[in-house]
Amino acid sequence: MLSRHLPIAALTLALAVALSVFAPIAQAGCYCTPDQCDICDLCYTKIECCHDKPELWLVNTRCLPKCRGLDCGFERISIKRYDTETCCWVEETHESFLAHEAANPMPTLFFAHGNTLKHKGALEQMNLLQCKFKCCPGKKRLVFWSWPAQVVYKRPILRPREVISKNLKIKYVYAEYQGYYMAKFVQPMQTSSRVTLGGHSYGGIIASVAAHYLGGGSLRCLTLEGSAPVQRPNLRLAIVSGAYDNDAMIPGMRYGQSFVAAEKVMNTRNCLDKTLKNWPDVSSRCRKAVGVTGINANLLGEHYNKLCQITMTRDVGKSHYIEPHMKSSRLVNLMCCIAFPQCEQAACQSQSTLPDAATHEYDTCEEAESGAGPLLELADQSIGSTVSSVSK
After folding, report:
1. Is 281 helix (H, G, I), strand (E, B) or coil?
2. Of the ranges 33-37, 218-222, 270-274, which one carries the lowest mean pLDDT score?
3. How far apart are CA 131 and CA 144, in angstroms?
4. For residue 196, which of 246, 339, 358, 387 is within the disulfide window of CB 3.0 to 4.6 Å?
5. Are 315 and 378 in contact (CB under 8 A)?
6. Pick from 162, 208, 200: which is nearest to 183 by CA?
7. pLDDT of residue 350 exceeding 90
């Protein structure tokens, strides 16, 4: 009688052991899909920063309506072009930008900074990106997006946690409306040259929402006139440490038309991101951030191959900020491949890579937290108490 129960007991024991092994990994929030990109090698590729800097433009929406009257506000948008001959900024209009773009076709990257930055800090980030993209060969254009990300609520009668929460929520609203401005800016551009919408942290919201509108999506009672639920030629996305729900871009979800409109979507993830670890407290749905878990490619259906996803844990450690990310040759390489075609054809397909030991990737968040592998410990730049919940 006892012998009959031995196989069942053994099976039960094996199942219990398996659960005890894999439960901590599941709780650690390990990645459900591997890193992938079908257009570029995700390893360290040697690219030399000896090329020309991108043509530089600055769009400033800080003085425009933030939530209402966006179409009227768009007519007053501030646009400047940096003239390399006179070394000064030249005032432009949306019409002159489109005329210049038509006369000088080249791949263009729009990039929006993250939360809390004032305009001066935004300009410093713009200069950093322009210098880094010297690594990308060929003609290229960088349009930097400076939006009203500065602190809104400063009332001392509120408790610090309440002030932080109110700022995070109102800035989230601002960022989604900024996506409408960006979509309206990009919509009339030529489709013969590549256009990439990018952003860091809350700036990722702006880029994703812009693509959502361009793909015929609606949000906050707004739709973009003339948009359609079809893939837009040469439109791409580049999201770095995105501070929004990890399922927001899945088709059918809040920014779901972004995957419909874009031909490629680049996304970074880092399960140790010290700033985004508190995102479930900010999310209205208690979801983890897309910059932590990444996008679940298994839920993308026919859009699966559009995703180019890279894990940044070994490159930046626990940091959320843009500076450590831009020190990663892997990420700069991938962003060049996504945004600038000549890089995709040349540097990104180079066979010259670092030794295999440098391309080790963490299998789980648990392994990274234990210190296994070449984790780069970087001190997170604290900006005061818990305000770093979703900063920069």
Report:
1. helix
2. 33-37
3. 13
4. 339
5. no
6. 208
7. no
Distance CA 49, CA 72 (A): 42
Model pLDDT for residues 110-156, shown as the tens digit of each residue:
999 999 999 999 999 999 999 999 988 999 999 999 999 998 888 76
Q: CA-CA distance, 99 to 94, in Å (whole number)?
A: 9
Extract the tokens encoding 312: 């940044």
DSSP 200: E
CA separation for the pair 294, 291 (Å, rounded): 6
Residue 215 gets which letter from DSSP? T
At residue 223, φ and ψ (nearest 5 deg) are: -135, 155
Instruction: Select from 229, 225, 228, 236 the least CA-distant residue to 191.
Output: 236
Measuring CA to CA, how many Å separate 292 from each of 44, 305, 311, 319, 325?
A: 22, 21, 9, 11, 14
The two most distant CA atoms of the chain are separated, in Å, by 94
Average pLDDT (85-100) is 97
In three-state secondary structure terms, 110 is strand
> Position 14: which residue type?
A
What percent of the chain is predicted at pLDDT more than 70? 78
Using one digit for the tens of pLDDT, what is the confidence trace for 234-254? 999 999 999 999 999 999 999
Q: What is the rounded CA–CA span in Å between residue 239 and residue 67? A: 23
Neighbours of 126 (CB within 10 A): 21
Supply 349's token pair: 């397909």
Specify the pLDDT at position 344: 65
Instruction: Give the residue carrying structure tokens 């305009």.
Output: 119
Number of Cβ atoms within 10 Å of the Cβ of 49: 13
| Phi, psi dihedrals of residue 111, rounded to the nearest 5° | -140, 125
Contacts of 347 (CB under 8 A, 6+ apart): 45, 47, 135, 136, 137, 333, 336, 337
Q: In which band, very low, low, confident or very high, does the pLDDT at 31 lie, cut at 50, 70 and 90?
A: confident
How many helices (H) and strands (E) would you count in the chain?
A: 14, 11
| Residue 164 · residue 134 · CB < 8 Å | no
* CA separation for the pair 226, 161 (Å, rounded): 42
Nearest to 314 by CA among 368, 277, 367, 366: 368
